[in-house]
């Protein structure tokens, strides 16, 4: 079985939903006392929705490490924007760049795929954990590109967080907020298992 790790190396610097949009939903246009709290709620709601869908909403950088080159790499956290670096450890243990002419990247579908270019073969990597490292940018490039349903899910969770923030969080209310958000998100949910396709077996399933 393919061994792999995935981590975010550069976090997003913007949210899919603005403070103004959240305040409009909450009908707090001219009230500023809770702005910092609302911004924190937007972030926590976005993180919940990203986890539920297994997606990256706004531009961020991810690092995927594999124990070997699979026939096809299925890139986690769609949508993928671009490859930043692609490297491997050669048989001597030296880091080498995978030449761009050796592979093709297809971002037209989800998940994006990376595979050997026509008549090309992957280089020989050392037989060690994390021998192959793919660093890439994922997420929609601007908030305007984030699907409306995803934004509505975030706003629904912000509204519920704001309503129940004091004095206590009511479990049933939280569950209801998540249920509403999930209805918006189900059409964008991914079901990721492993970032590779080897032979006829598909380990990354959407």
Provide a descriptive summary of the structure in words.
- The chain is α+β, with helices and mostly antiparallel strands and 206 residues long.
- Helix content is 29%, strand content 24%.
- It is built from four helices and ten strands, in the order E-H-H-E-E-E-E-E-E-E-H-H-E-E.
- The chain has helices spanning 19-26, 35-53, 148-164, 171-185, and strands at 4-10, 60-66, 72-74, 80-89, 95-97, 103-106, 113-116, 132-138, 196-198, 201-202.
- The strands form two sheets. It has a five-stranded antiparallel beta sheet, with no helix packed on it. It has a five-stranded antiparallel beta sheet with strand order 6-7-3-9-10, with no helix packed on it.
- Strand 4 (80-89) and strand 5 form a beta hairpin.
- Helix 1 crosses helix 3 and helix 2 (35-53) crosses helix 3 (148-164).
- The chain is elongated, with a radius of gyration of 20 Å.
Summarize the structure.
The chain has helices spanning 19-26, 35-53, 148-164, 171-185; strands at 4-10, 60-66, 72-74, 80-89, 95-97, 103-106, 113-116, 132-138, 196-198, 201-202.
Keywords:
24% strand; disordered C terminus; 5-stranded antiparallel beta sheet; 206 residues; alpha+beta
How do the helices and strands line up, and which of them pair or pack?
Elements: E1 4-10, H1 19-26, H2 35-53, E2 60-66, E3 72-74, E4 80-89, E5 95-97, E6 103-106, E7 113-116, E8 132-138, H3 148-164, H4 171-185, E9 196-198, E10 201-202
Antiparallel strand pairs: 1-2, 2-8, 3-7, 3-9, 4-5, 4-8, 6-7, 9-10
